[in-house]
Design brief:
Length: 101
C-alpha cells in the first residue's frame, strides 16, 4: 500500500514503479482504517498486554507475542479482512476523513 507519505511519492519511487508498469491506486494519506495490519497489531497488543508481567528480556517478549499471535482465532483475522469492503465504502462516504473503524 502506498499512501501519500513522502517515501511513497518520491520521484525515484514513481519512476521505478512506472518503469516496471506498476499502477498505484490513489490512497488517502493517514488511512489506518484501510490498513488491516494496523487492526491485527491492535488485536495482538490487546491480548498480550495483560500478560506482560514477568517479561524480563527481548526473548521473553518475543515468545509471549508468538504465543499470543498463535492464540488469535483465525475467524477474527478472517472477519477483519472480510470487513474491508465496508471499511472502504465508509471511507469513501466520509471523503477520506476518520471513520468509526
Amino acid at each position: 500500500m502506498h499512501d501519500n507519505a513522502r517515501p511513497h511519492t518520491a520521484r525515484v519511487v514513481r519512476q521505478t514503479l512506472a518503469a516496471a508498469n506498476i499502477n498505484v491506486l490513489p490512497w488517502p494519506a493517514q488511512s489506518p482504517d484501510l490498513n488491516p495490519i494496523e487492526h491485527a497489531w491492535d488485536m495482538l497488543q490487546r491480548r498480550a498486554l495483560p500478560n506482560m508481567e514477568g517479561i524480563q528480556s527481548q526473548e521473553d517478549l518475543f515468545l509471549l507475542l508468538q504465543r499470543t499471535w498463535a492464540a488469535i482465532p483465525q475467524r477474527d483475522l478472517d472477519e477483519l479482512i472480510l470487513s474491508m469492503p465496508n471499511r472502504c465504502s465508509c471511507v469513501v462516504s466520509v471523503r477520506g476523513r476518520n471513520t468509526d473503524y
